[in-house]
From TrEMBL:
Protein name, per record: CCHC-type domain-containing protein
Disordered as annotated region, ranges: 56-102
Matches recorded under PANTHER family: PROTEIN CBG26694, RIBONUCLEASE H
Length: 317
């Protein structure tokens, strides 16, 4: 007695195609556009018989080379999880069969978008590729070699080269193996100084975005806070070098009351032994609301123009 499961033969056929262990048989079944349950069984039985005969011939000619026959359409399922996995495989098998059937019917793939339609009916036949700038296809099907210098990139590079803006060398900061501080002798560099209050005493500090830490000398901190002693400073775990590679002795690290504009609070300050200028480094930037401008300005004018000109193409993507 059969249940009311529709297309029982198709379901059984998909189970057979999905469950065969012989990849050659599975490919043959998938390649047949007119596959039915009966034909699938005949193919499986025929290949199994051929495999068994070949095994017997090899066993008779050379017993050492005999192998155990492997059933080609054996299927096991011991749990609901196994059935769920088989259902996924069945759906995948159906999709693969549709692909083979479409190819067997001579339906070609569109060269402009890889869709299942003719080239003349493609909606992207007048589109301009964003990779090679040629008309007639979209980026995902473009076969042109990647170019290192696109027109937009070349234009951006030329505009950057023509700009006369000084940039801070942030990549020269490193810690804790060696935090570089100090200044270079660049004639184009303009010093920026601000006055902050350290424990209520004004201190003129140079803003140095190339220094990862804020630094003052021992003589400066002693002048600003006479009651401080070296024993009150924490033991240092940083190694400082100037831009000539010379080591800078560190006395210690302390937390001092800092006031600047609307900010007032405790900030870390590195105290050094030598007569070094007072530097306001990157570690204070967030607290004091300082920003580096002039190196991260990106104009969207050109991009917005392209989006506006090719709105129809970009919307379709």
């Amino acid at each position: 007695m059969h249940c009311e499961f529709q297309d029982l033969d198709d379901a059984l056929m998909d189970r057979i195609v999905c469950g065969v262990r012989d990849i050659r048989l599975q490919r043959r079944l998938l390649a047949r556009p007119d596959l039915t349950l009966q034909k699938a069984i005949e193919e499986a039985v025929a290949l199994e018989a051929a495999e068994r005969s070949a095994q017997e011939i090899r066993k008779a000619s050379s017993p050492r080379l005999a192998r155990k026959p492997v059933p080609v359409h054996h299927e096991e399922a011991s749990s609901d999880e196994a059935f769920s996995s088989e259902d996924d495989d069945v759906h995948q098998t159906k999709r693969e069969r549709r692909k083979f059937q479409q190819k067997s019917k001579g339906q070609s793939e569109c060269a402009g978008c890889r869709g299942n339609h003719s080239r003349a009916k493609c909606q992207f036949r007048d589109a301009i590729c964003r990779k090679c700038s040629r008309r007639g296809h979209i980026t995902k099907v473009c076969q042109s070699a990647p170019s290192d210098t696109s027109p937009t990139t070349r234009k951006s590079k030329s505009s950057l080269q023509s700009a006369k803006e000084s940039c801070f060398a942030l990549t020269n900061c490193y810690c804790p193996s060696g935090t570089r501080i100090g200044q270079t002798d660049s004639p184009t560099r303009r010093k920026l100084n601000v006055t902050v209050l350290i424990e209520g005493a004004p201190c003129d500090m140079e803003i140095d975005s190339r220094s990862a830490l804020s630094i003052v000398s021992w003589s400066t901190i002693k002048r600003l806070v006479p009651q401080v002693s070296k024993r009150q400073l924490d033991s240092h775990r940083v190694h400082l070098r100037d831009y000539q590679g010379n080591d800078i002795p560190v006395v210690g690290i302390g937390r001092f009351q800092i006031a600047f504009k609307d900010f007032s609070g405790l900030l870390r300050l590195v105290v050094v032994e030598d007569q070094q200028p007072s530097l306001l480094g990157l570690d204070w930037f967030d607290a004091l609301s300082l920003e580096v401008t002039g190196i991260n300005c990106i104009s969207n004018t050109e991009t917005e123009g392209l989006v506006k000109d090719f709105a129809e193409v970009l919307t379709a993507l």
